[in-house]
Design brief:
The protein is built from 19 helices and no strands. By secondary structure, the protein is mainly α. It has one domain (7-188, 202-409): MFS general substrate transporter like domains (Growth Hormone, Chain: A, Up-down Bundle), CATH 1.20.1250. α3 (46-74) packs antiparallel against α4 (76-95), α14 packs antiparallel against α18 and α16 packs across α19 (397-409). The chain is globular and about 55 Å long.
Length: 410
């Protein structure tokens, strides 16, 4: 049973979690703004830059489960603080990069840092800090607050890049990463939740259960499409708009609109997740993204269509976070939630890597992004259908075993 936590302490955890998520994801989702100035200044191809982004996402995916296990074993606070420091170090290397090798090393460090500071550990902290009855709505609220970084950071960054060398923009990122340290300290207060020591089952037993749990496996597989579409968009939208003759500031405005509307989408998803089956809502999100992509890319972009597209994507962006986190908590409880979210996140990051690097390869090969978005739409709609049809509880083992395990873990 979830034990009540002090109101002031809970508030500190939630504020720290929201700020940490806002800065970490705002920085990550604004990296695509550097593609054009960095490749021009360092005489690199789009493939070279996007390979660094792809490696970042691969490392993030590979390291998320081990980092989650470390956080479950040694505590969220020390893991989050370490991640913020690594984030700053990776951005310093990016700011001083002289070629592709430095960018690749930066990508490796940022990938590890995101495992420590982004949604998996943040959502674990939030889930531990509130009661089960409030969990879905609070997850949505923190996701909404966490999207504010995507609203503010890209506009500020693009303003810097327009009139100054790109390295100054990278140093601005370093300063924001340093600001993640106190946020991580506050969010790490979730380590003091009594439920951390209340489990009578081992991580090994939980992992064995997850490996045989069809809804968890389907959710993890469908999570692939989330990374594929979103990282493709954040990495390549600036270049796509540039080759279509649009003002460079439009891409920053679009990412900012995504971040602003994201708040509404996250709150809505958290509210709906408390009332309706989360696996169906998740599948519908993936399918709706495919329709939005198609409506935008079939016509030449204009400022109006781009901002409308960004608003629609904002409603469907971080909305997956409260749903996926809520599903994992419903299935297995919160004790080993960081580890289980990390395992599910591997597939998300496989999609992210393909979306970033594959988009660059297709652009270099064909000179356009047509094939890239078409593939994204097909994969996304397919994953959404599978999530709806096969991601719900079964009549047999899954439906019976999961509540028993969740009761033990709570």
């Amino acid at each position: 049973m979830q034990v009540a936590f002090g109101t002031r302490s809970t508030r500190r955890i939630l504020i720290g979690a929201a700020v940490l998520l806002s800065l970490g994801m705002g920085l990550r989702q604004s990296l695509g703004l550097f593609l054009t100035p960095v490749t021009r200044d360092l005489a690199l191809t789009a493939t070279s830059f996007t390979l660094a982004v792809a490696i970042q996402n691969i490392v993030w995916g590979i390291s998320q489960a081990p980092v989650g296990a470390l956080a479950d074993r040694f505590g969220l606070r020390v893991t989050m603080l370490s991640g913020a420091a690594i984030y700053a170090a990776g951005l310093v290397i990016m700011a001083t990069a002289g070629g592709a090798p430095s960018l690749l090393l930066s990508g490796v460090l940022i990938g590890v840092a995101l495992s420590c500071t982004a949604s998996s550990l943040v959502m674990t902290a939030v889930a531990r800090a509130v009661s089960e009855e409030r969990r879905s709505k609070v997850l949505g609220l923190v996701s909404a607050a966490g999207s504010l970084g995507t609203l503010m950071i890209p506009m500020t960054t693009q303003s810097i890049l327009v009139g100054h060398p790109w390295r100054l923009g990278a140093l601005f990122f370093v300063a924001l990463a340093v600001a993640m340290l106190p946020a991580g300290f506050l969010a790490g207060g979730a380590d003091r939740m009594p439920s951390r020591a209340a489990t009578r089952t081992s991580m090994r037993a939980v992992l064995g259960q997850a490996a045989r749990h069809r809804p968890f496996l389907v959710m993890s597989g469908a999570y692939f499409v989330c990374g594929l579409n979103l990282v493709f968009l954040t990495t390549h939208l600036p270049t796509y708009l540039a080759i279509c003759g649009q003002d460079p500031i439009l891409s920053a405005e679009a990412i900012a609109v995504i971040g602003g509307v994201n708040s509404i989408g996250s709150i809505t998803a958290g509210w709906l997740g408390a009332k309706y089956p989360k696996h169906i809502l998740l599948g519908l999100l993936y399918i709706l993204r495919g329709f939005v992509f198609t409506a935008y890319f079939v016509m030449p972009p204009t400022p109006t269509s781009t901002l409308v597209f960004a608003a629609a994507m904002g409603m469907l962006w971080l909305s997956v976070a409260p749903l996926v986190s809520g599903l994992v908590a419903d299935m297995f409880g919160t004790r080993y939630m960081a580890t289980l979210l990390g395992i599910a996140f591997v597939m998300h990051q496989v999609g992210s890597s393909i979306g970033a690097w594959g988009g660059g390869v297709i652009f270099d090969r064909f000179g356009s992004y047509d094939h890239a978005w078409q593939i994204g739409v097909l994969v996304g709609c397919g994953a959404g259908v599978v999530q709806i049809l096969a991601g719900g509880p079964t009549r047999g083992r899954d439906r019976i075993a999961t509540p028993q395990l969740a009761d033990v873990l709570h």
